[in-house]
């Protein structure tokens, strides 16, 4: 663990290792997303109550999972940056925030579309929905804070603090359906417990979740590499890299 943290102190090392890893994650993400989409939208059977409208689950659930996981990743990156002053952690957190905000919006929008045939309304001030909306505002706050200071380090510290404090919203999102009476159904996707749906519906959902996570890792690696080149543009190894590419 400590050896890995020490290696993270070197943007050059992270750039080199991410160069090797990112093509594999892009390839696996593309494969899983294609297979999961075709299986879920074409071959999975319709739900006996909701009909074909339940197929929104193949976008809604992975997006909701990723929205929460990205914020936790940002909070962890914030701790690493604040405690060990590792610049790569801050760069990763910076590039994760827009994707997390996008995934939160997709989860909210797809849930609203799903709510029309299920609940008869686009929106209810349901505990799960409200806490997810708060998560979107937290993402937007983190993004705004990074550009609100003349000093990049000050913006990074402020964004890290907000991420670390805001992460308390994640267990509220997760357990809101258990703590309060809500219209939102309990979890239909779980790794540890028995699936709440037939296997022919559950497997494509699992594939889609894995595909979304691989996409997140691939995009984070790619955008962090770009952020490293932007911030380290005056370093010798970056100049040599640009010269070799040209």
In short:
It is built from nine helices and no strands. It has 246 residues and is an all-alpha fold. It has one domain.
- Structural class, by secondary structure, is mainly alpha
The tally of strands reads 0
Percent in helix: over 70%
Characterize the largest beta sheet: strand count, sense, and whether it forms a barrel.
none
In percent, how much strand structure appears in the residues? under 5%
Question: What is the tally of helical segments?
Answer: 9
Q: Runs with pLDDT <50, length 5+? A: none
Alpha carbon gap, first and last residue: 37 Å
Pfam family, one: Cytochrom_C_asm
Subcellular location: Cell inner membrane; Membrane
Family: Belongs to the CcmC/CycZ/HelC family.
Protein name: Heme exporter protein C
Question: How is this fold's topology laid out?
Answer:
Elements: H1 2-8, H2 11-43, H3 57-84, H4 87-119, H5 127-146, H6 152-166, H7 169-179, H8 199-231, H9 236-245
Helix pairs in contact: 2-8, 3-4, 3-6, 3-8, 4-5, 4-8, 5-6, 5-7
GO molecular function: heme binding; heme transmembrane transporter activity
Function: Required for the export of heme to the periplasm for the biogenesis of c-type cytochromes.
Keywords: Cell inner membrane, Cell membrane, Cytochrome c-type biogenesis, Membrane, Transmembrane, Transmembrane helix, Transport
């Amino acid at each position: 663990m400590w050896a890995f943290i020490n290696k993270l102190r070197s943007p050059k090392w992270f750039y080199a290792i991410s160069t090797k890893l990112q093509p594999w994650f892009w390839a696996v993400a593309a494969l899983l997303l294609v297979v999961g989409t075709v299986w879920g939208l074409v071959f999975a059977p319709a739900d006996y109550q909701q009909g074909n409208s339940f197929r929104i689950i193949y976008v809604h659930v992975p997006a909701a999972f990723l929205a929460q996981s990205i914020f936790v990743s940002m909070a962890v990156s914030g701790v690493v940056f604040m405690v060990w002053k590792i610049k790569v952690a801050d760069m990763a957190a910076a590039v994760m925030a827009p994707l997390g905000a996008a995934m939160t919006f997709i989860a909210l929008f797809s849930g609203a579309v799903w709510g029309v045939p299920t609940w008869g309304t686009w929106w209810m001030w349901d505990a799960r929905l409200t806490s997810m909306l708060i998560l979107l505002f937290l993402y937007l706050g983190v993004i705004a804070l990074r550009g609100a200071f003349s000093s990049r380090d000050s913006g990074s510290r402020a964004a890290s603090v907000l991420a670390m404090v805001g992460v308390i919203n994640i267990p509220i999102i997760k357990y809101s359906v258990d703590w309060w009476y809500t219209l939102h159904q309990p979890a239909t996707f779980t790794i540890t417990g028995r699936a709440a749906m037939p296997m022919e519906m559950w497997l494509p959902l699992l594939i889609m979740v894995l595909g979304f996570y691989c996409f997140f890792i691939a995009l984070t690696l790619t955008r962090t590499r770009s952020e490293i080149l932007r911030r380290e543009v005056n370093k010798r190894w970056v100049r040599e890299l640009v010269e070799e590419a040209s």
